[in-house]
UniProtKB/TrEMBL annotation:
GO terms for molecular function: FAD binding; monooxygenase activity. Residues 30-383 form the FAD-binding domain. SUPFAM superfamilies: FAD-linked reductases, C-terminal domain (SSF54373), FAD/NAD(P)-binding domain (SSF51905). It comes from Russula ochroleuca. It comes from the Eukaryota. This is FAD/NAD-P-binding domain-containing protein. Keywords: FAD, Flavoprotein, Monooxygenase, Oxidoreductase. PANTHER family: MONOOXYGENASE (PTHR13789), PUTATIVE (AFU_ORTHOLOGUE AFUA_2G01950)-RELATED (PTHR13789:SF147). InterPro entries: FAD-bd (IPR002938), FAD-dep_Monooxygenase_BioMet (IPR050493), FAD/NAD-bd_sf (IPR036188). Belongs to the paxM FAD-dependent monooxygenase family. Gene3D superfamilies: FAD/NAD(P)-binding domain.
Length: 419
């Protein structure tokens, strides 16, 4: 919740709801959002509905069917429902009945937590598994339909000038040399963010985490013909196999017609990209010591995507000192996907920035509003970045005393779950 005493003054923050409530700003700002990923699209939607004119700039010339499965936890689905996406989401999502952790070599169950309807009951909204392309497409439709939105593809931002005191005011320069001016600039340009450098004043590259992911989608048709694999489809679960230095996450997407595999392993020189092809044979060799059911699943893989997992140390600030440039999503809080929260936290960012900017009535309020956004979001994103890193250690423990302690604790909790 926004607490007026903790936030900058001279804005009626006590009137601002924690989430966008349909209020429209008295002053309509000209806002540039850089990056049409999940975060940038969501921010385009919320800021447009708050009454602002948005130019969304995306370097890619085509927005297409990239990536693989993605988990959408209740903190995100709750917001997506508020934005009217409930039916569209339900149409493309699979609702997992549980999360199950297994030992890699035997497949023995070491952890189990029931999800399904309980998620909606306890967290107010469902947990979904979807294809990232479906998720992206629904946010793109939402952003496109919002009032006052202009989306420009093939518009790579090369540079940013965030100082309002410079003649012409804040601006971005595209690779083509074209200069576009704005009242506020939102950098949602992902883990390799150009705008992040302008905010921090440092030229820090994202940090390799030591891990990489193979990602593959297989048809569930052959799984349904195999009595050992059929249960993975019939009772859709979030299945995780934990191994020393590696883990595998697997779940159903697209009406259980497809099965998504994310295979985390030590990075051996991949790149950070949604579209880099990996070698299926190398992937099978890297996971050859996993239980026989995994070998069967991997035998169905025809092609894989390979992705180097990068993050950054939490930033001290997301707002440029001149108060007109702000970061959102992976641009400011890239994290390992080991809590499945990267996009979910970006969706939350978008909800909060839209809510705050629905109450702006003077340009002089912008720096304080951006700091309010940072104040509300940065601690939560930082905790999530750090706990995602912690899961890297927990999931990847070498076989030995720590692993046995982990498994015993998970088994004990599982016992209570199954009672
Ligand atoms: P991005 O999606 O990276 O979008 C940035 C956009 O900016 C891109 O379209 C890019 O082309 C554009 N861009 C970049 N530079 C420029 C420029 N200079 N000018 C113009 N445009 C530019 N999150 C979850 O919530 N749940 C999960 O289950 C989950 N699983 C994951 C699994 C893996 C293997 C990985 C790698 C990530 C996972 N994530 C998950 C994280 C999630 O994918 C990201 O956090 C999320 O996509 C970030 O969205 P974004 O909009 O901030 O950035």
């Amino acid at each position: 919740h926004l607490h007026p005493t903790e936030l900058p003054t001279h804005i009626p923050l006590e009137k601002v709801p924690p989430l966008y409530d349909g209020h429209r700003a008295a002053l309509s700002l000209n806002i540039i959002v850089v990056g049409a990923g999940l975060g940038g699209l969501a921010a385009t939607y919320t800021l447009a509905h708050a009454g602002h004119r948005i130019t969304l700039l995306e370097s890619a010339s085509v927005l297409g069917d990239v990536g693989a499965g993605i988990q959408v936890s209740p903190n995100a689905t709750r917001l997506l429902h508020r934005w009217g996406l409930g039916p569209a989401l339900a149409a493309v999502a699979v609702e997992p009945a549980a999360i199950v952790f297994r030992r890699y070599d035997t497949g023995t169950r070491v952890g189990y937590t029931r999800w399904g309807a309980r998620m909606a009951h306890e967290h107010g909204s469902p947990y979904y598994h979807v294809h990232r392309a479906d998720y992206h497409a629904m946010l793109l439709r939402l952003a496109r339909a919002a009032p006052g939105v202009r989306i420009r593809l093939g518009a790579a931002v090369r540079d940013v000038q965030p100082d309002p005191a410079v003649v012409g005011g804040p601006s971005v320069t595209l690779a083509s040399g074209e200069v576009l001016r704005a009242d506020v600039i939102v950098g949602a340009d992902g883990v390799k963010s150009t705008l992040q450098k302008a905010v921090t004043g440092r030229n820090d590259a994202p940090v390799p985490t030591g891990d990489a992911a193979y990602r593959a989608i297989i048809s569930t048709d052959p799984m349904l013909l195999d009595p050992e694999l059929r249960p993975f489809v019939e009772t859709p679960e979030m299945s995780a196999w934990m191994a020393p230095g590696r883990h595998l996450m697997a779940y159903n997407i697209r009406a259980k017609k497809e099965y998504n595999l994310v295979l985390i392993h030590p990075d051996d020189g991949s790149v950070e990209s949604w579209t880099e092809e990996g070698s299926g044979d190398k992937m099978r060799a890297d996971f050859a010591d996993f239980e026989p059911r995994v070998q069967k699943l991997l035998s169905f893989v025809k092609s894989t995507l390979k992705w180097r997992l990068m993050d950054r140390k939490p930033l001290n600030t997301w707002v440029h000192p001149k108060g007109r440039l702000v970061l959102l999503g992976d641009a400011c809080h890239p994290m390992l996907p080991y809590r499945a929260q990267g996009a979910a936290i970006a969706i939350e960012d978008a909800a909060v920035i839209g809510a705050l900017f629905s109450y702006v009535s003077s340009i002089s309020q912008v720096p304080a509003l951006l700091h309010a956004y940072e104040h509300l979001r940065l601690p939560r994103a930082t905790v999530t970045q750090e706990s995602s890193r912690l899961n890297q250690k927990i999931f990847h423990l070498p076989d030995g005393p720590d692993q046995r302690t982990r498994d015993e604790a998970m088994r004990a909790a599982m016992g209570a779950e199954l009672e």
